Amino acid sequence: MEFEVNGYRMHYSGFGNAADEPLLWLHGWSGTGVDWKYIFKDVPPGFRLIGPDMRGNGASSGFQGTHSFRQSARDIFALLDHLGIRRAKVIGLSGGGIAALHMATQQPDRIIAMIAISAPPYFPAQARAIQRQFSFASLPETEQTAMRERSRGGQKQIDWLMEQTRAMATTYHDVNFTPAILVTITARTLIVFGDCPSPK
Q: Residue 199: what pLDDT?
């Protein structure tokens, strides 16, 4: 399904019974709204799962200009309005988790509960070093193939995704959730974060 929002065409998918409680799935950067299938075997019972392809990702257009997770949050609120959904629960992975944090701070009363997975409050120096050097060629061949399949806008979209990833290394205003901002969240929140152990 698609609709026009804030100057681009958003693609989104819906799963489950439309009468059930809405649950937003927000994918990671360069992912798609159907990536929830890597997390759940089936739609969680009692929920209507909604999976948008965020701006510039997957089958959505919008891969021009400068990306921000803050704008993605506004886009997703527009999707909820389009669907007639006032309040929802949210699961966000990585970049999707960042968008969820923006949603929960932009309009706290609309987010009932959320799970933010691997969503940092800011990008530390180590992450920025990786972002600065990020390229399509640096990805394993399997991920290159998967990205080509996911990115319906072809190489132009992939180039934009790479460019925006590198731009994150020098952007400080978009992912900057200070304690003063985080304290405005009213949703019941679960933070899931981990790290790999250092090799011995």
A: 61
